[in-house]
Each structure stands twice: as structure tokens, then as C-alpha cells.
Amino acid sequence: MRIGAHVRNDSDPIGTATELGAEVVQLFLTDPQKWHKPTPHPQAEALLASDVQVVVHAPYVINVASLNNRIRIPSRKAVTQQAEAAAAIGAFGLVVHGGHVREGEDPAEGFANWRKMFERQNDAGGFAVPVLIENTAGGDNAMARRFDDIARLWDAVGGLGAGFVLDTCHAWAGGEDLVDAVDRVRAITGRIDLVHLNNSRDEFNSARDRHANIAAGSIEPEVLAAVCRSAQAPVVLETPSAGMAADLEYLHSVLD
Predict the structure, then answer these.
(1) Which residues of 220-238 are buried (b: 16+ CB within 10 A; e: fewer)?
(2) CATH class for domain 3-255?
(3) For the chain, domain boundaries
(4) Model's pTM, two decimal places?
(5) Three-class secondary structure of residue 84 per DSSP
(6) pLDDT in tens, 34-68
């Protein structure tokens, strides 16, 4: 099990990893709120040669499930571009949020849009790195908030090469008990490729995505540590920067 963090200094992830003692880093390759095409990373060669594992997080604007052509089509293109750029720095995967449809729209069409993206890309030779779908915290029309919805999503994409990211804050805020979350996710997806280990600033089932440091949120730290032990997957912290070093120290103290 490798433990690391999302790095805010995207131009120097190796330096940040060294400073934190992180064994895995997650980073954005473009502004997460925009549709920019990735450009070559300045540390590409160093990242390829490094022992630090790398995973890329896709921009938040991507919504593969959308029934709006002006969102769905650019989303598919962006996933392909981000995956190619992730491969260029040796990333083991590309994290993409599950997305949503709008109120009044049929969620089945959103699940079908995910399937179509994988089918089309697989016909073209597949994605450059595995696409890892992340559970999300809110929205009654989300594709990956509740585990029942994730089961429907996996019926659509599970046989097409999709991977899965379990975010603890998102699951908690989405109304899913963390005590047996790993077992329930594996029963649905057969895999957990990455854990986003975050506490929550808000109460259970709040539908609010507000991360907290391990000792500062509404989830018991021991429960978060138990998720890591059970998942046996790389762990990335997305907690506030001021307490991230302490979060890493805590995890190493209880997991090593």
C-alpha cells in the first residue's frame, strides 16, 4: 500500500512528494475548472524515472453522463486527451468524476453515455491509461453518489475496462456507511484502484463535498484507517494543505 497526496504545486510534484514523504502523488494537468488541452509536463522525464507513483485527476468540468451535446462531446474528447497526457508522465490512471444528468432526465441515458464512451474508445484502441471513475458526494441525479447507482453504472461499463476510486468524504456525504464500504464496493465493481482518503467537514448524508483533515472532521480517524487496510490500494490524501503532513504521519503510524 502506497500513501501519498494530491499536490497543489502541479509544476513540481516530485519536489512536493519529497517534502511530504509521499509515495504516490495526484495532480491536475490543466486548470480543473476549464476545458484546456494538456501540454507537456515540465517534469515528464523525471516523473517517468521516479519511484513515486503518479495518478492524474481530470478536470471537474467533465461530465461524460450529460445529455447535453455541448458538454458530453467535449467531455469525451477531454478524457481521451487527459489520458494521453497522463500516460506521458507514467501515471497509472486518470480519475474522472461519475457526473450527472439534469433534473427530469432519465439516469439510464447517463449510464448509457458512459458505456458509449468506453465502447467507442475501445474500438479505437482503448484509453492510454485506465479511466478510474470516482464516487461523488451529492446530487439526486448523480451517476456515482449512492452505491445502488454505482451498481447500475457498473452494469454499463464494468466489462469495458473501467476502474474505481473510493472517496471516503464523498461516500460519507453521499449517505453510505464507511464501516463496510470497501466490501460493498468490491461486490459491485470487483476492484478498488485508488482511495481518496478525506475526512468530512459535514455530517453524514449531507451531500456536501467539503474535505477535512483526518483528525478534524466528522468521520472517526480509526474508520478512515480501516478503509485503507481493507482496500489495500494506493491512498491519496486530498485534505487541506495545512494539516496534510500530520495526516500522512498519522497514516504511516497506524498502517506501516
Answers:
(1) ebeebbbbbebbebbbbbb
(2) alpha beta
(3) 3-255
(4) 0.97
(5) helix
(6) 999 999 999 999 999 999 999 999 999 999 999 99
